[in-house]
Amino acid sequence: MGTKKNDILQGTLVLLILKTLAGQKHMHGYAITAHIHAVSDQLLRVEEGSLYPALHRMEQAGWVRAEWGMTGKNREARFYSLTPLGRKQLAEEQESWVRLTSGVGKVLRYA
Amino acid sequence: MRKWLGRLWNAIRPGRLDRDLERELRFHVNERIDELQDAGMNAETAARLAREQFGNYTAQIERTRDMDIAEGLDATLRNVRVSLRALTKSPAFSITVVLTLALGIGANSAVFSAINSVLLRPLPFPNSDRIVSIAQIQAKTPQPNIAPARLEDWNRLNHTFDAISGYYTQDDSEASGDLPEKLTHALVSPRFLQVWGVAPQLGRDFNPPEERYGGPNAVLISDGYWRRRFGASPDVIGKTLRLGIYAQQLSYTIIGVMPVSMAFVQRNVDLWSVSAPDFPFARNRDLTWFLGVGRLKPGATLTQARADLETVQADLAREFPKPDAQIRPGIQPLKEQTVGGVRQSLWVVFGAVTLLLLIACTNIAALLASRAAGRQHEIAVRFSLGASRASVAAQLLTEVFLLALAGAGLGLGLAAAMARVFRVLAGDLPRVDEIGLDWHIVAYSLLCAAAATLACGLLPAIAGTRRTLAGSLAASGRSQVSGRRPASFMLVGVQVALAVMLLAGAGLLLRSFQELGRVAGGFDPDHVLTFRISASWGETGNLKASGQTVKRILEGVAAVPGVESSAATFLLPGVPSTFPVELNVAEGRADSEPKIIAESRIGSAGLFATMHIPLLAGEVCPQESNTPGMMVNRSFANIYFGGEGVIGKHLGQPSSLYFPSAVVRGIVGDARERGLDHEPVPTIYYCGLIMQPGLYFLARTHGNPVALGESIRRKLHEVEPGRSVFDISPLTAHLSDAFAQNRLRTVLLTFFALTAISLACIGLYGTLSYAVNIRRREVGLRLALGALRAQILRQFLAQGMRVSLLGCVAGLGLAGAFTKVLAGMLFGVSPWDPITMTGVIVLVITVSIVASLLPAARAARVEPMCVLREE
């Protein structure tokens, strides 16, 4: 992995996953990384080492539900989907993200 | 709920989780390989690259799984793992804590095992709560024994008992072996085993012919005698024993062996046989010999049983006005009667040992608080990494719990060892054979460990995880000026207070013991040998012959070289016992004068010479006389007769078999007959004895009394070949045995108190040392600025002393409550004995000065330049 990689902040990863899943019925882990990678114009790269712990923690928290299924290529994969609780969490995190970025933006503009 | 089940499943079956994870991650890698291949890579390179990118495969699985397991249930396991790591990193600390707790929990569990076996556990019989002891209460005599005829009436007429039975014991000589062996023989009325609800472990119970007068002689033997004499042989049934009963040898057929549990009411019984209720002699309602036991009907209460027997006795009083109108039944639960006497002592010892555990916990709490302060940095780091306060506190508590668990495990071993010590030290304790470990004790120890965890760990966990502390990650340590540690010092103060309380209690018991040793009993117990000689109640039928027997024995003993004089008595002087009687004066006495109530003793004429009780007036009863005589003590003469006027008067209970009228021959000095711990009371001594069980013989010797035991025994074998001599010991041994229970609790309490004050001192030393350590920089600075070393020394010393003085004050307050509990056990000292209290305070202050001096001196020796250079 190169030096230019953009590490995703701990809290942000959850937000990104929530948002990704919000647009789909269900997705497996690999699709989530691919989606984030693609949508962010290759800017953001999710490390597998962070993704699966995050997914499992979110499952514990009840934000996502996971079940085994088959992919188009007939491979067994674990599919994640958003729960109502997850939807609520997404709204909250989105709002706090906006607040944070606007705050940071103000500071940056000021300085 | 489903979530919890899932976690539980994960924890129990990590394999399933691993496989699931592996499948999921493998899928990810495969997808990646596909992508790389799509981009034009060959399969091998793609696979290698995908794996490299993914990183360590198993590490991934672990990390992800940790995510699942981290929260909830399995956090505990992780805490345990982390704790073990933390604890093994500081082994000295861990070992100190484990050993302290092992001592605390072990001592506590040991005392609890005694309480559990003696006080809490039911007697080892089926439905033993229904077994009661029954006595007959009669105004003029404290004897609880029941006439056989009355016992049968009570059994026949009541409605609340399954059965009532009775027993008495005597010493018999068994003569089928080479030498006569003394056996303790219980004579029981019918239904005895029915009351206990036990069957012989071998053989059978008595059958009806054996329970009738003139029936076959049958005997049940104890488990102990069976093993000792017959090597536990199963064909013992049908063998015969030759017993010396009623002054003749009779053959008894062994019909059964009793189980080990049959150690009640008396522990040392070897044989049981029937005392037939239709024995002509047993018809007399004035004779009393049975101690009653009964089994209540299921559901019958003690109150109902009491009322029932009262009614039965009221009917009997109408039928036999004399003597039944004077008599009432007394019923008490058997367990209460067996163990009631030691309840208070056991609970006091238990209280003391619990205080000790509390002190040990407080000590460890102070240690942990200091350690937590030292780990502030570590804790702060964990906070900054997102750990919650609860999880850090849980982690700290897990550490303590692991230590407590190890301590409890070691403590259990200690308790098991101490149960054995109990049996040696407190052989007289009722039910002492039953003391041992069972699951109650294990559960209790675990409970102790949990309680200790909370007591030790809660405060440090709360104090150590305070966010304000953790927040000052960078600031802590370096520029701290006056790190006051009120929590640690408070804990030390608590320890001092508890130690003062224990010391006060132990001091008072010690002083009581000392006072007891200083008491002049009015007799000289040194150089007196005591022994007993087998006899049976049957001999008492022939008064003249059995009187001659005593005389023969006494003369025989006196003839042994080295023996100064000999005597016989029922109750040993100075050994606590009481036998009050009310007396009439044959010469008449004005109604206005108070009733004459006196302690009574029966002894041979030689008693006063042998015990060195001085004759003050009149003469000692002559050895042989046709008129019964008695001696009175000075108190008796002074209180009831104003002095020597008592000589020549006839005193007694005119109609009593036990206290016939006798003439007063002389006045002797006051002796503490009711026990060394009781002031002498008015006492009468009936002169003249007949041979019967329970008699003590005394020999005053020139030299060491024990050395003459064998000569006396041999001499008596010549004089009375059919009798066995036993229980040979100096009178001083009886006196010290009589106070063995006092001694045991005094020794234990003293030991606990000294341990407590040592722990408190270690706590004070440790806490002050820690305070000195974290303030070294401040001290260095002050010294550099011109402070005097003496000032620094004084300041730290004062800090230590302030804590222990406050502890003393609080401890004295607590002692007030504690010594109130002890009040009944004290002798010759008040619960507020100024000598004891002053002694305790002086001791505590002295040792706390010593404990504070070392750290204070270390503070004063700080080299300012060294410390400031460390900045």
Question: Would you give an account of this structure?
Answer:
The complex is a heterodimer of chains A (111) and B (871). Chain A has 111 residues and is an alpha+beta fold. Chain A has one domain: Winged helix-like DNA-binding domain superfamily/Winged helix DNA-binding domain (Arc Repressor Mutant, subunit A). Chain A has 4 helices and 3 strands; from the N terminus they run αβααββα. Chain A has helices at residues 10-22, 29-39, 48-61, 84-110; strands spanning 27-28, 64-70, 76-82. A 3-stranded antiparallel beta sheet of chain A has the order 1-3-2. In chain A, strand 2 and strand 3 form a beta hairpin. In chain A, helix 1 (10-22) crosses helix 3 and helix 1 crosses helix 4. Chain A is globular. Chain B has 871 residues and is of the alpha+beta class. Chain B is 53% helix and 15% strand. Chain B contains 28 helices and 21 strands. In chain B, the strands form 3 sheets. In chain B, strands 1, 2, 3, 4, 5, 6, 7, 8, 9 and 10 form a 10-stranded mixed beta sheet that branches. A 6-stranded mixed β-barrel of chain B has the order 13-14-19-16-18-17. Chain B has a 4-stranded antiparallel beta sheet with strand order 12-20-11-21. In chain B, a hairpin with a 6-residue loop joins strand 2 and strand 3 (181-188). In chain B, helix 13 (343-374) runs parallel beside helix 24 (740-774) and helix 19 (543-558) crosses helix 22. The longest helix of chain B is centred in the middle third of the chain and has 37 residues, at 389-425. Chain B is globular and about 130 Å long. Chain B starts with a helix and ends with a helix.
